[in-house]
């Protein structure tokens, strides 16, 4: 049985409802780290169920770094003004803008990567892997491609403030918290150099 303090600590850390925190802690046998994993799985499931909903509101946020030489900006959309005007939602948009400034993603999702970008990267990796034995070559190239995309795709990047989460998982937990579809619809990084 989870204690009130454990439930409160998990709720404070995740922002998820008390009942979901209690259920996750009970399922995890009181282990907070396991409960967080359970909540992440639930978040992904909730986000998938809400993925076909229409976005009708949102917020634009910007983060300026390095004495004004780098700016990350993001438009984070939600279904309603009720959510988009929430202070926590604004903080989420700001954190993602900070992430954009720090990590310089080039694509929002893997679906946004153009075929010619994939082809060009694959050609480079095939040349690099030319000396690797045939048996391991394909696996090496696929591994390099996966790493290349993870570094450049916003939703697949480890979140700059908590690398144990990807930006996608961060957004999925917000979907669970707010009960609405949430999506980064646009982002931009500007720098002096």
List keywords for this structure.
193 residues; alpha+beta; Helicase, Ruva Protein, domain 3; Tetrahydropterin Synthase, Chain A; three-stranded antiparallel sheet; 5 strands; 54% helix
- How many structural domains? 3
Biggest beta sheet summary: 3 strands, antiparallel
- Total count of helical runs of at least 4 residues: 8
> What is CATH's topology name of the largest domain?
Tetrahydropterin Synthase, Chain A
Q: What would CATH call the class of the largest domain?
A: Alpha Beta
Give structural notes.
The protein is of the alpha+beta class and about 190 residues long. It contains eight helices and five strands, in the order αααββααααββαβ. It has helices spanning about 5-15, 20-25, 30-50, 80-85, 85-105, 115-130, 135-150, 165-180, and strands at about 55-65, 70-80, 160, 160-165, 185-190. Strands 1-2-5 form a three-stranded antiparallel sheet. A two-stranded antiparallel sheet has the order 3-4. Helix 1 (about 5-15) packs across helix 2 (about 20-25). It starts with a helix and ends with a strand.
Quickly describe the structure:
By secondary structure, the protein is α+β, with helices and mostly antiparallel strands.
What is the element layout, followed by pairings?
Blueprint: H1 4-14, H2 18-27, H3 32-49, E1 57-65, E2 70-78, H4 81-84, H5 87-103, H6 115-128, H7 134-152, E3 158-159, E4 162-166, H8 167-178, E5 183-191
Antiparallel strand pairs: 1-2, 2-5, 3-4
Helix pairs in contact: 1-2, 2-3, 3-8, 6-7
């Amino acid at each position: 049985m989870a204690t009130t303090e454990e439930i409160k600590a998990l709720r404070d850390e995740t922002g998820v409802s008390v009942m979901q925190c209690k259920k996750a802690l009970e399922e995890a046998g009181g282990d907070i780290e396991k409960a967080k994993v359970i909540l992440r799985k639930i978040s992904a499931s909730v986000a998938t169920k809400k993925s076909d909903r229409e976005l009708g509101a949102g917020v634009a946020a910007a983060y300026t770094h390095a004495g004004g030489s780098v700016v990350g900006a993001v438009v984070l959309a939600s279904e309603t003004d009720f959510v988009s005007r929430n202070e926590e939602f604004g903080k989420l948009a700001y954190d993602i803008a900070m992430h954009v400034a720090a990590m310089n993603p080039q694509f929002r999702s893997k679906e946004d990567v153009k075929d010619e970008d994939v082809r060009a990267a694959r050609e480079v990796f095939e040349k690099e892997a030319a000396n690797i034995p045939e048996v391991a070559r394909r696996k090496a190239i696929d591994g390099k491609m996966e790493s290349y995309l993870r570094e450049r795709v916003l939703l697949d990047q480890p979140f700059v403030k908590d690398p144990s989460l990807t930006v996608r998982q961060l957004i999925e937990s917000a979907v669970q918290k707010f009960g609405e579809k949430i999506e980064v619809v646009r982002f931009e990084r500007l720098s002096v150099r």
